[in-house]
Amino acid sequence: MAKPLKAVLGARVRDLRRSRGLTQEGPAEQLAVTPRYLAGIERGERNLTLDSVDALADQLGVVALTLLDPSADPTRLR
After folding, report:
1. Which of 32, 34, 42, 53 could, after both became Cys, cross-link 10 (CB 3.0–4.6 A)?
2. CA angle 29-35-38, nearest 5°?
3. Interval 17-44: pLDDT, tens
């Protein structure tokens, strides 16, 4: 059975954020959410709007598809 999309998205956000040396505070502030809410996103427990997916992708320097597709190349920059 495939993982739910929000679990895939959360794991990708966490992995990319960590690989860039970012804490949860910076991305959370840019999204106008609390670090706790971002942690919930990363655990696949919270939902995001498409606008928020785009904003996170911008902040992480990738195209939005990278956050949604586990097979997408994370080195493909915006």
Report:
1. 42
2. 95
3. 999 999 999 999 999 999 999 999 999 9
Is residue 72 very low, low, confident or very high in pLDDT (cuts 50, 70, 90)?
confident
- For residue 51, what are the CA distances in angstroms to 21, 33, 56, 73? 23, 13, 9, 21
Q: What's 5-68's CATH class?
A: mainly alpha
The tokens describing 48, both together, are: 């995001």
CB 17 within 8 A of CB 67: no
Q: Residue 13: which of 49, 38, 47, 32 has the closest Cα?
A: 38
Look up the pTM and report it. 0.86
